[in-house]
Predict the 3D structure of the following.
Amino acid sequence: MTFHYALVCFEKGALFLMKNDLGIQRITYVKNQDQTSSVLNQVKDPNTQLVEDKQEFMEELEIFRQYFLGKPVDFSSLELDFSSGTPFQKKIWQMTRKVTYGRTQTYKSLAQKINHKGYRSVGGALGKNPFLIAVPCHRIIRTDGTLGGFGAGIGLKKYFLNLEGAQIS
């Protein structure tokens, strides 16, 4: 199977985008070139071919360019392949995808929307989110208004929220 990938560079590093015929498989933050090699090694196996190809990502690159210029962006046009997630993770990722640019929701409110009592498990599902920014887990915060966890680091979560003009504590 062939996977295409591209990097979207921005002020704090880059996003590694990877897709195949089913859609985008991964959007991952990388700080530098060394991390890019590490991500490539994580996804490569004998049955896959990885091809760097910006032409395959023209729409995505433009959407992310607009995002990093601070313009309100709707990522719903991006075709994401959720097949790597469990049914619960998929449900959380799909709900999170609906959180509007520049707004935040709490882990607890997200859990309540799906009639789930364990909001920590919502955080766990978001911790496995393979679609940074497009499934905006950075917009999910603690009930007390603090930022909570973020796999790419709290500093980057704060950066994305500030870029979007979100009100944060």
